[in-house]
Design a protein that fits this description.
Layout lengths: L9 H9 L3 H17 L5 H14 L3 H12 L2 H8 L9 H10 L5 H13 L10 H17 L7 H14 L4 H13 L3 H14 L5 H13 L3 H17 L5 H14 L6
Helix pairs in contact: 1-3, 2-3, 2-6, 4-5, 5-7, 6-7, 7-8, 8-9, 8-10, 9-10, 10-11, 10-12, 11-12, 12-13, 12-14, 13-14
Length: 264
């Protein structure tokens, strides 16, 4: 029996998955998760079918909650989930998938997921993947470029960020980090170019891009352009109640450079 979409009912797929030995089940469930995450936006029926199949086949409560949090864009919920002991029991490739679906400013959750993956079985097939290496470089580069000034290692951060975009050149977050690192070593024009690439890849960017974009323009003497991007970042932050701590620190830094009052 097949559905009108030419696919077997989701419950039948679930039964087939659950009938397999446990290790094979895990691989099949991960494959379904990957297909669901990559399902084209213009094929809602396919996405609906895949979601139903995963829901029926996988009884794991942690994974269900994580999928729901990712689908709803509920970052606080996902951040709570990655701190639970159950997170460390998940297949690294699934954690890798969740990390790739997180929003750009989810640095804390990404760092935690990255740590869990590093602690997992080093024999996993995805471990040497380019994206995984790039993500590790990016997280460390961002930390070294944006910590308190006495803890920064700007030159090393730039090397790491450059490696990240070389390994994974289509990730907006990595280009944002590269632009931040270029700014820290006073390479104003390369900083603007990298941040513009980040904004292009992310469909316009957000305050994380715009504040450093503004500061780089200011350093080049383009005061009007700098103020335009600073004001856009402030407006975005005022509209969005959930603001990353990094954004607030960068706003203070930009306000001091541009000589504007930093109102809460």
């Amino acid at each position: 029996m097949e559905s009108t979409l030419g696919r077997p009912p989701a419950a039948q797929v679930a039964s087939l998955v659950q009938a397999r030995p446990k290790p094979i089940q895990e691989h099949l469930l991960t494959a379904l998760d990957i297909c669901l995450a990559r399902a084209p936006d213009d094929q809602p029926q396919m996405r609906k079918w895949l979601a139903a199949a995963v829901e029926a086949a996988d009884p794991d409560p942690w994974r269900r909650q994580a999928r729901d949090a990712v689908a709803a864009g509920d970052l606080p919920a996902l951040e709570r989930l990655v701190e639970e002991p159950s997170a460390a029991l998940q297949r690294p490739v699934l954690l890798h998938l969740f990390m790739s679906q997180l929003p750009r400013d989810a640095r804390t959750a990404k760092g935690r997921l990255n740590l869990l993956m590093q602690q997992a079985d080093p024999g996993e097939f995805w471990a040497p993947s380019r994206f995984f290496q790039a993500s590790a470089y990016d997280l460390l580069a961002f930390y070294l470029a944006t910590s308190e000034s006495n803890l920064r290692m700007e030159g090393f951060a730039l090397e790491l960020a450059t490696k990240a975009v070389t390994l994974s050149p289509n990730d907006a977050n990595f280009w944002n980090t590269l632009g931040t690192c270029q700014y820290r070593v006073r390479n104003w024009q390369p900083a603007i170019a990298a941040l513009a690439k980040a904004m292009q890849l992310s469909g316009g960017g957000d305050a994380d891009d715009w504040l450093f974009f503004a500061m780089a323009h200011w350093q080049l003497g383009d005061r009007q352009e700098a103020r335009k991007w600073y004001d856009q970042a402030v407006e975005w932050m005022n509209r969005n109640s959930r603001q990353a701590e990094d954004f607030r620190r960068f706003r203070v830094e930009a306000a001091e450079l541009l000589g504007v009052e930093n109102k809460k």
